[in-house]
Structure formats: C-alpha cells, structure tokens
Amino acid sequence: MSAVPKVGFHEFRTYAGHPGRDGANFAYAELGLLLKASDRIAARPHDLLELCRDDRAARDALAGCDSVIATVGPHAYFYYYLRERLGLRFRIVRDVRTALWNGYLLQESLCAAYLRPEDSLIHSSAYSSALFRRLFPGTPPETHQVCYPLLRWFPAAAAGTWRGSRRSKTTLIGYVGRLTEDKNFAQALDLLSRLRRRSTDFRLQAVGEAQHPPNGRPGFEWVPKVNREELWHRYAEFDVLFFPSTSTLETFGRVLVEASHVGVPILASSHGATTELLDQDALLPTAYHTGRRFTAHLAAPLGEVDIETAVRRLLDGPPVPASTGYTRYRDHPGYLIGILVDGNAAGRDRTPSPTPQQEAFVDSVRMHGLDIPAATRNADAVIAVLRDRFVTLHRRGHPRYWLTLADLLYRSRYRAKTARFAYHSAVHGQDFTNIGGVDLQLSHLLAFYPSFTLAPA
What we know:
six-stranded parallel sheet, five-stranded parallel sheet, 39% helix, Rossmann fold, alpha/beta, 2 domains
C-alpha cells in the first residue's frame, strides 16, 4: 500500500426530486465530506453510474485505489464484480444500513462469493453486526466492524441545548421520522389519545414525511419538512421524544443519536439498537409478532410497544432519563479512516457485544428463501444482468428504459409498489440515490423475495 492510501468513493448527491432525505442520504453525503477532509488518505471521488456504463471508466477510476468505500446504498456488489472482472486488487469497505430488508440482503448474497479477508463490512450498531453474522455465517467474523463516524458533523452549538417546551402545564411529545406503519407511528397517536383522555395537557408534534397525515386530531401537529438547523431547535423544545419503531428496516436510529446529542429524554421501544444506545429506564416493553410471515420486500412493524406503560410513565413518572450511549461513537471518524488505512486490524477488540435483548431477537429470526450464489461465475452472470438494467434505468426516455420498466412491472410480485417507482422514475427522475427505489426493483429480475418469521422466545 502506498504511503498515503488512495481511497475511491462515489460522491453521493441525492436526486433533486427526492421528497425527503432519510438517514442514509445524510450519511453518504457526510461520509464524502469526511473522506475529503482527512489528511491520512487521498480521496478519489467517482461516479458509480459511469463505472457501470464503461469498463474503461471503471479501470481508470479504480486501478490506482488501495481501498474503495461503497457509499452507494445496497449496490456494493458492483465493486466486487468490477474488481474481479478487471483483475484489480483494491480492498472494499461496504456497509449495511437496514436490517431485514431486500436491498441489503441482496447485496450481501451477491457479495458472498467474492469476499476477501481484507474486505470490511461496516455496521452502525452491535445489533446489525449480530444479525448479519447470523444471516451470513460465511462472512469472516473479523471483517465485521461497528462504526458510525458521523457525529463529527453534528453541530457543537446544539449539544446539551435541551430545554423543553417551557410550558408549565403542557407536555410536548416529539416524534421524528416517517409517519408510517413500520415506524409504529399509529402507536404515537394512540399514546396521545390515551393521555388526553386523562389530561388535555399533552401535545404531539410529528416531524417527517407523511402521505396521509392525521391533521385535525386534538393536540396533534404535523411538521412536514424542516431544514437541519431547524430540526436541532425542534429537538431542544420537545419535553420527551417518543421512538416506538419496531421496523424491519431499523438497524440504528439516527434520530436517537441526534436527540441524545441535544439531551432530549427519549422513550423508546426495546427493538434494534435502542438497548445499546439508551438508558434501560428509557425503554418500553416490546412484544413481537411471533409466527407471522414477513416479506423482506416491504417495511413492516415487527411488534408493538406497551402503550399503557408509556402512559403511566408520562403521567406518574419517574422522569425519562437522558441517554449518553451515543458518546461511544465520538472517536469513530478516526476509526473509519483507520479501517481504510490499516484494514480490519483497526477494529481489533472494538466490536461491542450485542445486548441480551438483541441476542434473543436475533436467535428468534427464521429466514426463508435467502439464496446465496455458490461461486463467482454464478454471481457474475447475475450481476451482469443487474448492471445492464441499472444503467438502463438511468437513461430516461430511451426505448430500452421503457422496456425495462415494462419488464419490471411484468415480473414484480408487488406491482403497486413497482408502478409507484415507475412513476417517480419517469416523472421526477428518481435514481439509485433513493434507497428503496432502483435497488428494490432490481430484485424482481431475480425473483429474490426472502421472507422470515420470529420464533417465540
């Protein structure tokens, strides 16, 4: 490796028509800033779409790299395919940003045949690491790294600024994120209704995307869009943040880390990363839907939090504590750069153990239909098809673009969702930066539809 390692990465820019960025969009943009700011590496930005269009462009961009970090959503398999196809030697650092969901399950399935011991898989939480080690036991354990290097971009001026709503009687409950079923948003409304039956001194303010916001409910306010600076002020004004999510997607919860940075007390489910990020007294009993068949293609709630416990807690106390679990990530910008410079040795003895709740959940997952190509030649054939369609889906208006959309609709088992994708692609220019768009639709070409159940404890 050269004295200053050259690190290739896709310079992530969310497509202009995106209705509202999620944690992955911010993460990839901020990772690019982190890479360019480091003096320990030489950052070499490229465009993944150009690499997929042309082998010569791929060779020019990647041949001189010591490492490549996949800031491209669940499309890291393209780098593995190109490395093998072009006979190159760079290390690959990829990530997973969702849990039991088609996109990253497909990525890990397609990468499996190409893995080298020097490659790394980045997780944002011990929960994510434990889950993917269970689902993909062939991935070398030492390549799993738990690293969230983005606290660097949290404004120092927002740290510890929580003051609450400053209303002597009214309690303002905050909710930040998509107002969707999989995020258990209905339980936030249920909490508000039950509280207001006993006292009208409770309000709920929901900040995030919603297709059908429940406006008009007593005590409810929907804030559809805020810029980042305003969001930090919103956090500071909540008396408590309610995070009931049991989503199949959940691996971390950027909302939890942002709110903890401000100092907001958080009342949350016991699912995903909450048990490692939050004080135990901030967690609510959470019951999972055992025995139910879930498809990994659609986001869904895996369970429900105990709302009556939340009601009693907010009415009678004790106060919900602030949490400091996020502070373990403060040195992770340097940790990530260390992985790029020194490889997996940088993470030796740094991987946290999952909590007992996380271990119990991971042990309960029963996966079905998670097919993994046995050899690189099998993966090569599959990825070659995906590469062609990936490029074609970014050639709006070309005859093959329309044919590909028609083919996806024909093959899809979820045609309503595919039709929405086709509309947003054709009308708004949706591209692969919309996580859960192009990547999810490519799975129809392979009939890749894994599902799972949760066994009783």
